[in-house]
Amino acid sequence: MADATKKIRVGWFSYSCCEDSTIMFTEIMNDHWQDWKKIIDFRHARVLQSKNHWDEMDVAFIEGAVANDHQKQEVLRIRSLAKKVVAIGACACTGMPSAQRNTFNEKQKEEIEILRVRFASLPMVLKLSDVIKIDAEVPGCPMDTKKFLETLTALVGEWQAAQ
Ligand code: SF4
After folding, report:
1. Residue extents of the structural domains in the chain
2. Using one digit for the tens of pLDDT, what is the confidence trace for 49-82?
3. Residue ID of nearest Cα to ligand 1 atom 3
4. 56, 66, 78 from 44: Cα distances, Å
5. How much is the pTM?
């Protein structure tokens, strides 16, 4: 029999981006917090809490593109901890618009090289699926909130069915 006190373990992470999907996420909470707090254990969500954990997750939502090796290592770590990973927003799904420097011509690339080196950035900005396997995507700039709710509902349903 399913344990009614058990909660789905969720992480929310942001990398190179403007974090507008994080803002949408907190806006959605105005309507859903009372329900979510009964079923979701936020293991990591810096926008919601100061105490966060790097441990096992049922679902990790990742917003933003991957622009440097530190971010790449963190994303690989998230993949090793999370059963499902969802790319959130256009930057995570496609790289753009955060990956705009990938489209620069040689002269433009030369001009920004000093900054790229100073901030230890990768030669090319990567979309999430360039670094890890992803299980679902929520496109949009910022994310499509209807699609996000559908994805979250489906993942919670899958998790509940497995309990
Ligand atoms: S997809 Fe758009 S809203 Fe989301 S982080 Fe990128 S630029 Fe910002």
Report:
1. 8-152
2. 999 999 999 999 999 999 999 999 999 999 999 9
3. 142
4. 10, 18, 10
5. 0.95
